[in-house]
Amino acid sequence: MEEAKLTERGRKGGRGAGQSRSCASSDVPMVVTSALPISQRRNVRLPEVVPSQDTHPCRCQPALKSRMDLDVVNMFVIAGGTLAIPILAFVASFLLWPSALIRIYYWYWRRTLGMQVRYVHHEDYQFCYSFRGRPGQRPSILMLHGFSAHKDMWLSVVKFLPKNLHLICVDMPGHEGTTRSSLDDLSIDGQVKRIHQFVECLKLNKKPFHLVGTSMGGHVAGVYAAYYPSDVCSLSLVCPAGLQCSSDNQFIQRLRELQKSAAMEKIPLIPSTPEEMSEMLQLCSYVRFKVPQQLLQGLVDVRIPHNNFYRKLFLEITSEKSRYCLHQNMGKIKVPTQIIWGKQDQVLDVSGADVLAKSIANCQVELLENCGHSVVMERPRKTAKLIVDFFASLYNTDNKKLD
Question: Could you please report the per-residue DSSP string of 67-85?
Answer without folding.
Answer: HHHHHHHHHHHHHHHHHHH
